[in-house]
TrEMBL record:
Top-level taxon in the UniProt lineage: Bacteria
Pfam families registered for this protein in UniProt: Phage_tail_S
Descriptive protein name: Phage virion morphogenesis protein
Species of provenance: Harryflintia acetispora
Length: 167
C-alpha cells in the first residue's frame, strides 16, 4: 500500500525555496552570526547587563574605585571569542574564572597566604592580628555575560533571512 501527497499552489516557488537551503553558504552564515553574538557579548561589559538587559550587581572594587564591574583590566571582556563552521557557532571564553562570574559563587572557602615571612597584618574585631594564612568564605553574585538576548535572536533571524534572499 502506498501513500501520496498532493501539493497545490505555488509548488515551484516552494521547491525553489527548499533548494535555496541546499546551496546556502552555511559556513559564512554561521561566521556572521558568531561575530554578531560575540560583539553583543562584549557590549554587555560596557552596559554592565546580562542578556536580558538586567544590570549586574556592582562589584565592591568598582564601587570603591569608581570603575566598571567585571572590567578591571579587561581580561575577561577581551577573552570573548567565537568559533564557527558549517554546523553552527559558539561564543565564549576559556578563562578559568569566567564560570564564577557567569554563574556566581554562593560561598567558596579560599585560603589567602602571606607572600613574605612578616605575614598578613589586619584588624579583626578591633584587634590587630598577624597570620601566615587566613581562610575566608567568598560570595560572588552571578553576573551573566554569555547568552542570547532578544536583540541577538533578531540579528540571527535577520542574518539567515538575508542569506536566503541573496539567491
Amino acid at each position: 500500500m502506498g501513500s501520496s501527497i498532493r501539493l497545490e499552489g505555488d509548488v515551484k516557488g516552494l521547491l525553489r525555496r527548499i533548494n535555496q537551503f541546499a546551496y546556502l553558504d552555511k559556513k559564512a552564515v554561521s561566521a556572521a552570526m558568531a561575530e554578531a553574538v560575540r560583539t553583543s557579548t562584549v557590549e554587555r561589559f560596557k552596559k554592565q547587563t546580562d542578556p536580558q538587559g538586567k544590570r549586574w550587581k556592582p562589584s565592591i572594587r568598582a564601587q570603591r574605585e569608581g570603575g566598571v564591574t567585571l572590567s578591571d583590566k579587561g581580561r575577561l571582556r577581551n577573552s570573548i571569542k567565537s568559533k564557527s563552521d558549517a554546523s553552527g557557532f559558539a561564543v565564549g571564553t576559556n578563562l578559568i574564572y569566567a564560570a564564577t562570574h557567569q554563574q556566581g559563587e554562593k560561598g567558596r572557602r579560599i585560603t589567602i597566604r602571606a607572600k613574605t615571612s612578616k605575614g598578613l597584618v589586619f584588624r579583626y574585631k578591633g584587634r590587630w592580628m598577624r597570620k601566615q594564612q587566613v581562610k575566608i568564605a567568598v560570595k560572588i553574585p552571578a553576573r551573566p555575560f554569555l547568552g542570547l538576548s532578544e536583540e541577538d535572536m533578531q540579528e540571527i533571524k535577520g542574518t539567515v533571512e538575508d542569506a536566503l534572499r541573496e539567491d
